[in-house]
Amino acid sequence: MDYAALLTRAREAALPALDRGRPAGYIPALACADPRSFGMALATVDGEVHGVGDWRKPFSIQSISKLFALALALHHGGPSLWRRVNREPSGNPFNSLIQLEAEQGVPRNPFINAGALVVTDALLSLTGDAGGSVLDFLRAESGSPGIAIDGDVAASEAEHGHRNAALAHFMASFGNLENPVEEVLAHYFAHCSISLDCHDLALAGTFLARHGIRADGSRLLGRSDAKRVNAVLLTCGTYDAAGDFAYRVGLPGKSGVGGGILAIVPGRGAVCAWSPGLDAIGNSVGALAALEDFTERSDWSVF
Amino acid sequence: MDYAALLTRAREAALPALDRGRPAGYIPALACADPRSFGMALATVDGEVHGVGDWRKPFSIQSISKLFALALALHHGGPSLWRRVNREPSGNPFNSLIQLEAEQGVPRNPFINAGALVVTDALLSLTGDAGGSVLDFLRAESGSPGIAIDGDVAASEAEHGHRNAALAHFMASFGNLENPVEEVLAHYFAHCSISLDCHDLALAGTFLARHGIRADGSRLLGRSDAKRVNAVLLTCGTYDAAGDFAYRVGLPGKSGVGGGILAIVPGRGAVCAWSPGLDAIGNSVGALAALEDFTERSDWSVF
Amino acid sequence: MDYAALLTRAREAALPALDRGRPAGYIPALACADPRSFGMALATVDGEVHGVGDWRKPFSIQSISKLFALALALHHGGPSLWRRVNREPSGNPFNSLIQLEAEQGVPRNPFINAGALVVTDALLSLTGDAGGSVLDFLRAESGSPGIAIDGDVAASEAEHGHRNAALAHFMASFGNLENPVEEVLAHYFAHCSISLDCHDLALAGTFLARHGIRADGSRLLGRSDAKRVNAVLLTCGTYDAAGDFAYRVGLPGKSGVGGGILAIVPGRGAVCAWSPGLDAIGNSVGALAALEDFTERSDWSVF
Amino acid sequence: MDYAALLTRAREAALPALDRGRPAGYIPALACADPRSFGMALATVDGEVHGVGDWRKPFSIQSISKLFALALALHHGGPSLWRRVNREPSGNPFNSLIQLEAEQGVPRNPFINAGALVVTDALLSLTGDAGGSVLDFLRAESGSPGIAIDGDVAASEAEHGHRNAALAHFMASFGNLENPVEEVLAHYFAHCSISLDCHDLALAGTFLARHGIRADGSRLLGRSDAKRVNAVLLTCGTYDAAGDFAYRVGLPGKSGVGGGILAIVPGRGAVCAWSPGLDAIGNSVGALAALEDFTERSDWSVF
Hints:
Four copies of one chain form a homotetramer. Chain A is an alpha+beta fold.
């Protein structure tokens, strides 16, 4: 398959959409991103990488880090994690408190903020350093040792983090946090503030396309667990738009308010598209348009 | 692949689970079903059919008919249907009124009761006979001309249908019904009361595995639309357990309180499992266990 | 006390507010009301009546009839009614379905639409004619035998009554209606469509100021029950603005989207103000301003 | 009126109910209270005090302090407080997060926990010491200089205060707190942990019966403001049971999970009943029964 041509086409499909999005405004480091930026990279299960546009320009990983935190927590701790977080789509905005109350402090899934805080808490208990574990994994899989946490972003997140603090205290009131609220938040903000590029993220996602095998051939997740993480990505990975994303793109995927979207094609590879302008739900307009075009033209779809 | 062996194994995996389920109790015709019944059938895209257990024993299609109503409404009316019904998973019980109010009478997806009423209303406007259209389609695809609406079930549904009447009036108050409430309800109860067996349902589902092509080679849905219906099935097809179903089974599927579950394997075929005992959410315990075993052992998974 | 002067002052306080309200728009008979109309009447426990402005111009009673339906249902059936309807304020819009679902078909209080439907159903069972019972009571207490149901309004209510039909079916699904949905709705629309004037309503309300004694000296409610109905009026009588009404006016009161508000002063009398323009919550802007001025200047307050 | 006899009767009415309640269990200092304790005191507007049972036994004021924090915040800061907190009854449990989200961080009323945190924050900004202001006021009005904050209770509240921390951070995320979350919580826990007896609370409440005049003759609130605080008490003072409390007792009142209830009779006086056993909603079973009996026998009711 001519991947380069498909990526070029996908970029062309995305360009007219870029003006319709707006960068996330809640922290300065994200608000000043150039909405005309667009990058896209594809990594095959064999480690082949292709890219287009700003694919080597670093951006903030934001919620996409939740995927890696989940995989690492499952790797270190096993399925008991599912007693502390469900895996059902949330019918509400990604940081809503409503369902959390109705379900007694057990978040709907690991990709809403509440769920990711529980996963971070578990990973912290298991490894002693949740933020560092995610960082090390991303460096290793991407072969980019320079990937780092952006301290300015992390500081801004903490400063504007009252909602996440509310979520963490709320779950603590139900007994669903093991570590002090402040530590869990610090590790959560750390791994959400990692800065990396499309090339790095596409490579880092290939372990899910290889059914759980890392770049170095070691196994991170069992075959069934890798399938299951893909299933959770498909049903819950894009906030309150998971149904629409599945409808339009048809792949397991995870988005972040930094503008990135990472999609997995089981058995084939991983694709990462990035553009800072977001739609009302918080997904990148450009990345979504590019992925929709890519899956429409290629045979990379699960359905 | 030795389908017969896989089905036999799946049945064995399901048998110990049967006692944990309870038949739907809200109408007499369903309540008196034997919870020890179990059947399973597999139909390939080539029309090959295999079965095990009570696979030729008829049962009530219930909500699985919503899938066929949706496909037919899209066939006759096109994508404008999506202006009247969303395609996001519902974070609430399948017949909840809460999100319907929050979203101004537009149901979350076509598989909750409210959404299926809108689809039925659309199909009624397009064809003049929503119940008959679904019935004709099922007869044709399965090659079983004897498939019929169970009048007792339909009458019981109508008698106990106050919640569906509430939903229909509620959507009518937002202007989201075109036909009189009573007519929409009658057609809805009709297609939900169709009686058929695992063999019939597996065959009737193969058009989605063939990317939209019917048994006679004609096209019901375009390739993209067929992919998209599979995506909606995966994210919304099993009430408030869609995430768990994707996690455990990993296939697009639709369940009904009659105890049936129909799952689609794009490019390969369709599988229908049936056992009347339901879990708390309304999905068949036995059918779920059988499908989980089947996908675990075969390579029939989308992830 | 110089009641005439107080009423004149209250009218002056209301006049500048009239332009801020808008008549109810959901049925034609209400939408065409003149928003500049304003009337107010006061009836003492001794039967003395004073009025100002359009106090003899008839208007649609709308939800104020719920108060009389409640009193009559308690008179005929006693306190067992409270097993079918609660008496807590509703934190949601007056016709919301949300809390009704959470509380298993038992409405929050007798003055939201759902609760009034249950009260109407009970009154229908007890008397055989819920609409007629309310009408007879109003005629007797006001001494105005010409009070009648406005057939046009009742027909319009029925035509636009999908939300009330949804509520009724919904409660029927929980077993909380004794009569057929259609009959309950017809009686409900009948007593809400009664047309009468400020003079009539003020007189009809005095039984609550007389601790349960009707105009002819007979007892409708026991002293404790009359106190209790006043309590329910204060906490629940003005939709989602009961707290604000208590804060500003400080009296038990019931409003209707016809623009009327009836307020009770235990031991003293009843006041009815009317002006068709409503605020966003559905209470008359002019009537509210007039009652606030009246209670500020007089010593007619419960606090 | 023979107040002593009325109190004795009320105590007799309460005694059989004591066994039906259970002391609050969330902090040790409350859980070990003797459920058979019962005290009641009445203070007239003239400063006359009567008591019965354990009326001089100190207990934890808990949420009743919210009433004094509100009065002091209105005294020091005026009506602008109402831009930061509404005055509508809450249709949800007293510390629910749901409506807070729906209403953008503005609590429903000053007596749910979220609202009391906002009031405490305002009082802290206005006086520099919210906890101390409430304490000083209670000492002065009751003539009991020994009233003090119970440090053990305050420490326990802080230790088990994740839900209140969640509420505070949540409101801070909407910009509805002026002081650091930790400081607001500390002052809130301080005034909720004041220990005093029925005698003290009844006297401290009389300023509302005197239409805003303190024990020393100075004015805390204007006449209208005192009326309005009484109105908010009646509609919102007893968690999700305000409607039922109004129905049964018919007085403005405020309850606390320490087992106390303070009720106001405008123009007459204040009554405080106390017994540690609570009903499911968090109101004292014994205090409620005593107040119901008292208002039934006396003419102390607003309706």
